[in-house]
């Protein structure tokens, strides 16, 4: 009997803890859900992306990044703009390996940091990311 009440108390504590965690998470409204869905679609396209010589796939990534730069949470919009601009720069080479070799983003560190910020937010808020 005592063992059963101990188990019941442990289950109750766990349920309360999980409830508190759930209440502390940000609410997913329609806009957040749309962003998370778009982000997952972007990562799916990115996983099958063969490289910047695949212009059709690059066009898709550019379009998705442009859309995500508009639908992203405010704190990520500049990051998405940096990433979309970089993808657009790659697209401007039209798949030509020689042109691609000459391209350099104006601020490579900004592109890297933008990607990290987008990925970290996606993992935390959407359960989606480049590493998930």
TrEMBL record:
Residues 1-27 form the signal peptide. Keywords: Signal. It comes from the Bacteria. This is Hemophore-related protein. It comes from Kribbella amoyensis. The lineage of its organism: Bacteria, Bacillati, Actinomycetota, Actinomycetes, Propionibacteriales.
